[in-house]
């Protein structure tokens, strides 16, 4: 298998088969799970490829290789959560470095950046990255790192990665793109000029809502080594069992994304036509403000969307009571469909004022569309909407 994997193959093949039939002990087809924390030295002064599980683990490394290959990176580090992935990047910055982040970034990322800023470890500037003038102005202050999230959560706004990366590079800043919402099946930020990709692998990469984990992928080999070193220094390396489960989930990434996107499109179109719905935010719709950019920058529109109910909070309550097939829960990216209410769940920490500024209304619901039959999903939504 080692000679076979050396041949360059399509990404679908990497996801389905990276590391398959590579076991030298028994010829296992599915890569084994190595739980051992420590490894026997071959001789005095002669360690083998692995010595201690925090530093390196064969199961985790196989997953890191697969994800790095899918993103077109030089190497990846698997972290115990998506937040640990963000912190791995941020924690390596020199004290007082300026970090630029989207004004509507993931709530946990916002909380982390604000907490580190409050401790004086970095300074933070929040910018609406669809406003290129504002981005250019903030780059005059020489940030060390610019974080980008596209599409955004929960309004599915899309920003131009290549333009932002070009501007940041010219200003001497590194660019990290959180690719959690689309996965490398649908978007490859490194090919658009980003230096790093971040993932909450908890979401689409694992895809089964049973692992919390994350990843950082670097475009540059030296950076990848630096991140790996830092993950060992801080102990932020993912558990072997989580890595094994995530590799198992990754096998079906492309098939899942394609089928979930088909469902999402059908749902977005149906929601648009519903009298109880005032707006649908899905980049796959021709009238989405960023549709053309999404079509150019992405290989698909993904399985995330949000929509606004005409009836506000009272309608949200009735919808949540009546909806079927969608489970009312946070998180996203699994094979099962979920519905969340950002104002009281994922984005509650943001505060009403900041939510208002970002356009996240109290009548907004977010969907993560799964693999169920489209007819059941549509009927389940109708059951919720008919009471609104
Ligand atoms: C969930 C999520 C994170 C955080 O990941 P965890 O695995 O929950 O720590 C970061 N970014 C985005 C876009 C997410 O959806």
Number of domains: 2
Mean pLDDT: 96
Instruction: Return the structural class.
Output: alpha/beta
Contiguous helical run count: 14
Q: Please report the distance between the alpha carbons of the first and last residues.
A: 56 Å
Q: What small ligands are held by the chains?
A: pyridoxal-5'-phosphate
Describe the strand arrangement of the main beta sheet, using strand numbers: 1-7-6-5-4-2-3
Short description:
It contains 14 helices and twelve strands. The protein is 38% helix and 15% strand. Belongs to the trans-sulfuration enzymes family.
Overview of the molecule:
The protein has 388 residues and is an alpha/beta fold. It folds into two domains: 218 residues, Type I PLP-dependent aspartate aminotransferase-like (Major domain) (Aspartate Aminotransferase, domain 2); 132 residues, Aspartate Aminotransferase, domain 1 (Alpha-Beta Complex), CATH 3.90.1150. It is built from 14 helices and twelve strands. It has a seven-stranded mixed beta sheet with strand order 1-7-6-5-4-2-3, with helices on both faces. The chain has a five-stranded mixed beta sheet with strand order 8-9-12-11-10. Helix 3 packs parallel to helix 9 and helix 4 runs parallel beside helix 5. It is globular, with a radius of gyration of 21 Å. The relative contact order is 0.13. The N terminus is likely disordered. Bound molecules: pyridoxal-5'-phosphate. Pyridoxal-5'-phosphate binds next to helix 4 and helix 5. It holds the Pfam family Cys_Met_Meta_PP. InterPro entries: Cys/Met-Metab_PyrdxlP-dep_enz, Cys_met_metab_PP, O_succ_thio_ly, PyrdxlP-dep_Trfase, PyrdxlP-dep_Trfase_major, PyrdxlP-dep_Trfase_small. Keywords: Pyridoxal phosphate. It comes from Shinella yambaruensis.
């Amino acid at each position: 298998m080692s000679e076979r994997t050396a041949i360059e193959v399509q990404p679908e093949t990497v996801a389905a088969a990276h590391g398959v039939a590579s076991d030298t002990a028994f010829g296992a087809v599915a890569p084994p799970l190595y739980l051992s924390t420590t490894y026997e030295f071959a001789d005095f002064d002669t360690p083998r490829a692995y010595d201690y599980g925090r530093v390196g683990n064969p199961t985790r490394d196989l997953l890191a290789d697969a994800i790095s290959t899918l993103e077109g990176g030089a190497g990846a580090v698997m972290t115990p959560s998506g937040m640990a992935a963000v912190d791995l990047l941020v924690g390596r910055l020199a004290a007082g470095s300026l970090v630029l982040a989207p004004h509507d970034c993931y709530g946990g990322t916002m909380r982390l950046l604000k907490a580190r800023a409050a401790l004086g470890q970095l300074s933070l500037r929040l910018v609406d990255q669809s406003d290129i003038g504002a981005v250019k102005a903030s780059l005059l202050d020489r940030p060390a790192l610019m974080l980008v999230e596209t599409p955004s959560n929960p309004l599915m706004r899309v920003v131009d990665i290549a333009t932002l990366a070009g501007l940041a590079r010219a200003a001497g800043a590194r660019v990290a793109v959180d690719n959690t919402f689309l996965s490398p099946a649908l978007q490859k930020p490194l090919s658009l000029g980003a230096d790093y990709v971040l993932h909450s692998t908890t979401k689409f990469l694992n895809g089964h809502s049973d692992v919390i984990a994350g990843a950082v992928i670097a475009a540059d080999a030296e950076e990848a080594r630096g991140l790996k070193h830092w993950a060992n220094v801080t102990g932020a390396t993912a558990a072997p069992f989580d890595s094994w489960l995530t590799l198992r989930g990754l096998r079906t990434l492309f098939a899942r994304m394609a089928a979930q996107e088909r469902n999402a499109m059908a749902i977005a179109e149906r929601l648009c036509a519903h009298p109880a719905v005032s707006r649908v935010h899905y980049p796959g719709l021709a009238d989405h403000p960023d549709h053309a950019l999404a079509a150019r920058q992405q290989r698909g529109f993904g399985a995330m969307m949000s929509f606004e109910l005409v009836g506000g909070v009272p309608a949200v309550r009735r919808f949540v009571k009546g909806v079927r097939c969608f489970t009312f829960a946070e998180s996203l990216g699994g094979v099962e469909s979920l519905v969340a209410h950002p104002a009281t769940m994922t984005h509650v920490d943001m505060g009403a004022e900041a939510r208002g500024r970002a356009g996240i209304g109290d009548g907004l619901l977010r969907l993560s569309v799964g693999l169920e039959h489209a007819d059941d999903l549509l009927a389940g939504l109708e059951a919720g909407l008919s009471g609104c």
